[in-house]
């Protein structure tokens, strides 16, 4: 489609336009932002599923199988697979596609790998942008897959409509299941590699913990699956769809999306403010000078902090 | 370019030996690139689909089975058919000297044979990007 611009091509479901726009958003290209401003009215149709869990739990394989199940229902699906960027070189090896190779050729599946690109790399913003692009592209479902470590990864998973936590048997002692954090944000639990010894025990431990929760109107289901053996994937998908139905019927989906948008807005303001401050503070050598003064006890960190804030706040 | 270079590292064809591809993937990562590694036994169609969806700057392929004269040009042509003209395509593996001119003519921009330093590959990529 060489005679159409990227915006028109995206609306027609062109994969290259979709891919290029995501690249532009990843590099903070303002033209891409302008396009999203114009097309934002076309979003809101996709249902977003966050898939998280420890490395090696089988997130990619499970995503692959869930997507195939959705394809049987003729749903168009987008996948964003996030892998860590090396903090030393800034490079990354993104290997989630290995588990999804036969989805590559499906016209109604779009897979994109993303690196975390460091804490100031704006990953959550780029991911939220990519979700919008895939939504406009026409996806019915969008999967975001990431290891749930690091604040921005947790932020990203949290802003899904349904959070799927993938666990495996024998990962550690019982206490793993009550560790705070990611466990509380899951809406559906999958115990993958269900053919391994200990799967029942892990399921029981998770369920015991869930039963201690005070929230009683929705109790996350725990499903044993084997992604590699393609076992009980349909059951798991049904639980995900049940969670969606629950949100829709209790009017909680909108509530949740308002909460998610609040988080996205705050995050973007925080990042922009931060880069504004850093730009100025570094350019004017202020940060260096104040850090030195604090070290030499010429000033204290609290006064120094106010000094930096004066760069952006007029009082 | 203020974003990392994105490279698809792929193994077309049926040989099951990906040590070389993995060494290259690791070297490119350490050079600050984002490497999308797709694993063994990829068809040219899969490679092209992945290259498009990942919007890569470079497609780097490795073959040790001897099928390079068939598979490498096939990837070049499929990309062309899709209208992709801004991707650098390079190849490597056990490739006889005599086959190299044909491959270069078919649109593979460089062929790296055993013994190549990873530094040379990195340099070549950095100096020959198309966008």
Could you give the distance between the termini of chain B? 9 Å
Q: What structural category do the secondary elements of chain A indicate?
A: alpha/beta
Indicate the mean pLDDT of chain B: 94
Walk across the major sheet of chain B and give the strand order. Answer: 2-1-3-4-5
Largest sheet of chain B: 5 strands, parallel
Short description:
The complex is a heterodimer of chains A (315) and B (131). Chain A has twelve helices and eight strands. Chain A has 315 residues and is of the alpha/beta class.
Structure characteristics:
heterodimer; A: 315 residues; alpha/beta; Rossmann fold; 2 domains; seven-stranded parallel beta sheet; B: 131 residues; five-stranded parallel beta sheet; 18% strand
Task: Describe the model.
The complex is a heterodimer of chains A (315) and B (131). The mean pLDDT of chain A is 89. In chain A, helix 2 packs across helix 3, helix 2 runs antiparallel to helix 5 and helix 5 (123-137) runs parallel beside helix 6. Chain A has a 7-stranded parallel sheet with strand order 4-2-5-1-6-7-8, with helices on both faces. Chain A has 12 helices and 8 strands. Chain A has 2 domains: 40-250, 3-Layer(aba) Sandwich (Rossmann fold), CATH 3.40.50.300; 251-315. Chain A starts with 5 loop residues before the first helix and ends in a 6-residue tail after the last helix. Chain A has helices at 6-11, 15-26, 30-39, 59-72, 123-137, 151-158, 182-185, 199-211, 233-249, 252-283, 286-295, 301-309; strands at residues 47-52, 77-83, 92-94, 109-115, 141-146, 162-167, 188-191, 222-224. Chain A is an alpha/beta fold and 315 residues long. In chain B, strand 4, helix 4 (100-105) and strand 5 (110-112) form a beta-alpha-beta unit. Chain B is α/β, with parallel strands linked by helices. Chain B is 40% helix and 18% strand. In chain B, strands 2-1-3-4-5 form a 5-stranded parallel sheet, sandwiched between helices. Chain B is built from 5 helices and 5 strands; from the N terminus they run E-H-E-H-E-H-E-H-E-H. In chain B, helix 1 (19-30) crosses helix 5. Chain B has a single domain, classed as Rossmann fold (3-Layer(aba) Sandwich), CATH 3.40.50.280. Chains A and B meet through helix 2, strand 3 and strand 4 of A and helix 1, strand 2 and helix 2 of B.
């Amino acid at each position: 489609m060489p005679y159409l611009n990227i915006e028109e091509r995206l609306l027609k479901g062109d994969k290259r336009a979709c891919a290029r726009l995501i690249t532009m958003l990843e590099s903070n290209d303002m033209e891409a932002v302008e396009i999203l401003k114009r097309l934002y009215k076309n979003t809101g149709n996709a249902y977003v599923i966050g898939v998280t869990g420890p490395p090696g739990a089988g997130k990619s394989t499970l995503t692959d199988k869930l997507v195939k199940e959705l394809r049987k229902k003729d749903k168009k699906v987008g996948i964003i697979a996030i892998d860590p960027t090396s903090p030393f070189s800034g490079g990354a090896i993104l290997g989630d596609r290995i588990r999804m190779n036969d989805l590559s050729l499906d016209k109604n599946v779009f897979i994109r790998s993303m690196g975390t690109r460091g804490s100031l790399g704006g990953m959550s913003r780029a991911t939220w942008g990519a979700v919008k692009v895939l939504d406009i592209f026409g996806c019915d479902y969008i999967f975001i897959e990431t290891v749930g470590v690091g604040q921005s990864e947790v932020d990203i998973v949290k802003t899904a409509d349904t959070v799927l936590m993938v666990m495996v048997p024998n990962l550690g002692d019982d206490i793993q299941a009550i560790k705070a954090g990611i466990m509380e944000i899951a809406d559906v639990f999958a115990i993958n590699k269900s053919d391994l010894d200990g799967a029942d025990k892990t399921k029981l431990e998770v369920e015991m913990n869930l039963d201690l929760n005070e929230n009683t109107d929705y109790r996350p289901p725990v499903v044993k699956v084997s992604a590699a053996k393609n076992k009980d994937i349909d059951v798991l998908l049904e639980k995900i769809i049940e969670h969606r139905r629950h949100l829709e019927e209790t009017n909680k989906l909108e509530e949740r999306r308002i909460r998610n948008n609040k988080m996205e807005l705050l995050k973007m303001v925080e990042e922009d403010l931060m880069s504004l401050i850093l730009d100025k503070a570094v350019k004017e050598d202020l940060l260096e000078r104040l850090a030195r003064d604090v070290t030499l006890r010429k000033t204290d960190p609290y006064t120094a902090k106010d000094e930096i804030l004066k760069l952006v706040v007029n009082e | 370019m203020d974003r990392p270079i994105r490279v698809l590292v792929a193994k077309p064809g049926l040989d099951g030996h990906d040590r070389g591809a993995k060494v290259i993937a690791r070297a490119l990562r350490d050079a600050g690139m984002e490497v999308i590694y797709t694993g063994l036994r990829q068809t040219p169609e899969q490679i092209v689909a992945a290259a498009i969806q990942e919007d890569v700057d470079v497609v780097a392929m490795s073959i040790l089975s001897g099928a390079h004269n068939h598979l490498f040009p096939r990837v070049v042509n499929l990309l062309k058919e899709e209208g992709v003209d801004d991707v650098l395509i390079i190849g490597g593996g056990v490739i006889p000297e005599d086959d190299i001119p044909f491959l270069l003519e078919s649109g593979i921009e460089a062929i790296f044979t055993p013994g190549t330093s990873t530094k040379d590959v990195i340099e070549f990529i950095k100096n020959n990007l198309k966008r």
